[in-house]
Amino acid sequence: MDKKLPKKGAPGRKKIHFTEEQLLEAERLAGLGFSEESLCKAVFGCSVSTLQRRKKEFNNIEQYIRRGKIKSITEVSSALFDSATGRNGRDPSVSAQIFFLKNKGKEAGNPWADVQQVENNINLSDIISSANARIIEHKGEALPSAREEIDIKQLNKAKNS
Questions:
Q1: How far apart are CA 104 and CA 108, in angstroms?
Q2: C-alpha dist (Å) from residue 119 to 116, 122, 125
Q3: Does the chain have fewer CB atoms within 10 Å around its N or its C terminus?
Q4: Are 60 and 23 in contact (CB under 8 A)?
Q5: Please, what's the b/e burial string for 85-110 (b: 16 or more CB within 10 A of its CB; e: otherwise)?
Q6: Cα separation of 104 and 52, whole Å?
Q7: Helix (H) and strand (E) counts for the chain?
Q8: Which residue ranges make up each domain of the chain?
């Protein structure tokens, strides 16, 4: 019997490893609002799919990006709060107060939060009646095989049930 040896194929591309400098730059740019696609182009020199794979392999990559975003959100939120309350040495800003109240604590039942509620009312009876009318109207134009499949009585029966 012939023993089959494992095939040795092409070694593929060399794995991309990110340096500490790249990760720190990604942290800074993520804090400035750069998307992961932009980080890939500007810092890492790889595709988004490569970054996603590396994030699964090395948890610290995601931590750098998240830390940059959190740091910026904290700084801006603090500046907004200082502006709204007058802690920045100026008079309190009414527009900053309104913005802060509308955007903070939506989950906590904030009465000033902007809430969007969408309601859809669908009357299936009207939809079926409209469909029936279109079928009857175009029955003469239907292909012979399609005529056999259309049973208006069954549609009306389904409508009434």
A1: 9
A2: 10, 10, 19
A3: N
A4: yes
A5: eeeeeeeebeebbeebeeeeeeeeee
A6: 31
A7: 8, 0
A8: 20-103, 124-160
Whole-number Å distance between alpha carbons of 19 and 126: 63
Neighbours of 26 (CB within 10 A): 24
Work out the number of other CB atoms within 10 angstroms of the CB of residue 55.
16
Q: Which amino acid is at 77?
A: S
Measured distance CA(43)–CA(118) in Å, rounded: 41
Assigned token pair, 118: 């969408």
- CA–CA separation, 33 and 46 (whole Å): 19
Task: Work out the number of other CB atoms within 10 angstroms of the CB of residue 159.
Answer: 14
CB 50 within 8 A of CB 16: yes
127, HSE (Cβ side, Cα atoms, 13 Å): 5
Which residue is it, tokens 């049973």? 151
Residue for token pair 């060399």: 14
Over the chain (161 residues), the average pLDDT of each successive run of 10 is 60 82 96 95 94 91 94 92 92 90 70 73 88 80 52 67 65
Token pair in block for residue 14? 């060399």
